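User: quick one, fold this
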Amino acid sequence: MAAPDNTSLREFVEKLALAGVGAVALTAERADALAEEFARRGNMTREEARRAIDDQTARWRGEASRIGERAGVGLHGVFHEFGLVTRDEYSELELRVAQLEHRLRLLEGEGQPTQQLRPV
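Assistant:
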């Protein structure tokens, strides 16, 4: 199996996130125009139409957020499958190694006599 191209994977994730945001990004100006159009064509007031649009937009945003979370969980699994680690995992391991090195230096120093400095 070929090694994954981190750049293309990153671009894919960014495009997916932007598509989700773009799908639910409805400006207030556009929502007002849409509400007026619904009110003109239907049996509802402008306020009722605007409220319905706001409710639907909130649902879309919630759905986009859940999709993003699921994609993140899925990508985390893919990264582990490829043997990749997250920055948090790397930082944690780096800290643990530094702690072990420090403890080892302390243990190695216990067996050696301490040198006293003499004034010159």
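User: anything notable?
Assistant: The chain has four helices and no strands.
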